[in-house]
Amino acid sequence: MAPGSLRCLSARWASWPGLSRAGIGAVMLSVVVFVASVLMAAAQALPGADSPALRRTITVAGPANFPPFFMQDPEGRPTGSRVEAWLAWQEATGIEVEFLLDDWGVALSAFEAGEADVMDSIVATAKRRETMRFSEPFITIHSSLFYSAEMLGITDLDSARSLVIGVMTRDACEEFLRAAGFDALRAYPDPASLIEAAAAGEVRVFCMLEHQAWYLLGQRNLLDRFRAAPPLYVAQGRWAVRKGDDPLFLTVEAGFRAIPPDRWRELDQKWYGRSLEESGDRGRSDWLLQLAAILLGGVALALLWAYALRRKVRREMASREGAERWLAKRVREAQTTHWAFEAVKDNVRDIAGMASLLARDLPEGFWFPKHAYARVRLGDTCCDLIGTRPIVASMTIPVLVDGRPYGEVTVVYDALSPEQEKGDAFLAEEDRMMRLIAGRIGDQIARQRVQDSLALSEERFRLVTEVTRDVYFDIDLATGAFWVNDNYRSVIGEIPEEFDDLRAALLARAVPEDREIVQAGLFGGGQGR
């Protein structure tokens, strides 16, 4: 409004009937107060400089070597499912994400010191909840004790109390074990260092997330050197901010919710190959959408560069994804084979129980266990979990005992996956696994038959020596060991403790015409017994 406008308005009001100068002043004062109130409310509604809405960058701390969440690509750049999750979050919010990746303990200390805004891939514990606010979990996995295959009997925490246990510095495993009263812990900065120490024999038992341990052991061809005890606890991966920083928490949470569902599914297939229990804030970044943004920009040079980069990354990720799927299958097959061997050994006298266990759990070692069923026939015993289901593919391996058919193990599919329809329904590794298990069944049954036959023979010999009045003895001339039955006492006398005394006693009882033959037999006739 121009300076003269107010005077003109006042003049018009003054000309209105019944409006005095005092009334005009009151009206003008009300207008000024109203405008000032509106301006103050608008100023208060604007976000401050420290508001998350005005942030231009956010720093995320995490472990540098934590596959598949945080890793490095061949050029040394950060990659992994959580790295791509935060890049997708950056795209959804417009806030740039910077990564502070280091050894686990160093990264956590940096977050606590305020050098980072968010801590990612962290497990919520009672102690940490005192200073941090945690998100919903984006993945649920188990933590277990892993031990050298040369050791036996590590079944729970109590069975490992006398051993030094390897952990990662400031990891949830370390906190869990210390709370359980374990002080003999040896800490390492990252998972790779801990695995290398276990491989070198520095520690023979270590605590780690199961999927991470199997991944690193398989990467180093160490799967056959270690075994896993039953899970210690369930670990849930989350992100966290410092307690009290609610605006930042809400900003991060809203940013993850803004990522489209298609991005979640694509990243899940890229990094995990199958669904895992996780919440909507799980990182599922997709660089193809970034490529689309570049295409909309219309820059031809950037388009060519992105196209070449896409082909390279696809090849690398396809290779890595294939390797991870292959490793997961081999681990499942190895675990199933080990379990089957133990089940056969423990139930060799209970054929029905063995057949039931094998029929129930054998499908777990196959490619798609949800559609796999088994039938185990051993002698006159059969456990059939196939029933009347439709059979679209089957594999049958015979069980031989002493070279003769004794039974068979059959696994079938009632439906095939798209991957199976493109190739063979059963893998060569699965065929080898089944043959190993069938061979173990036949060997154990044959061995048990031999043991039973030997036990029966010994029992018959014992009964013969007990009912006869003759003296029976067995002498090993090479070692001096001997055995005599109880009739020795009634016929000859007290059983000697020394071998030479026994030979002298037996020689003394020989009749003159047999003495030379008995002496040759007792003192080295060359036969050994």
Automatic annotation (TrEMBL):
<dbReference type="Pfam" id="PF00497">
    <property type="entry name" value="SBP_bac_3"/>
</dbReference>
<dbReference type="InterPro" id="IPR001638">
    <property type="entry name" value="Solute-binding_3/MltF_N"/>
</dbReference>
<feature type="domain" description="Solute-binding protein family 3/N-terminal">
    <location>
        <begin position="57"/>
        <end position="275"/>
    </location>
</feature>
<keyword id="KW-0812">Transmembrane</keyword>
<keyword id="KW-0472">Membrane</keyword>
<feature type="transmembrane region" description="Helical">
    <location>
        <begin position="22"/>
        <end position="46"/>
    </location>
</feature>
<keyword id="KW-0732">Signal</keyword>
<protein>
    <submittedName>
        <fullName>ABC-type amino acid transport substrate-binding protein</fullName>
    </submittedName>
</protein>
<dbReference type="InterPro" id="IPR035965">
    <property type="entry name" value="PAS-like_dom_sf"/>
</dbReference>
<keyword id="KW-1133">Transmembrane helix</keyword>
<feature type="transmembrane region" description="Helical">
    <location>
        <begin position="287"/>
        <end position="309"/>
    </location>
</feature>
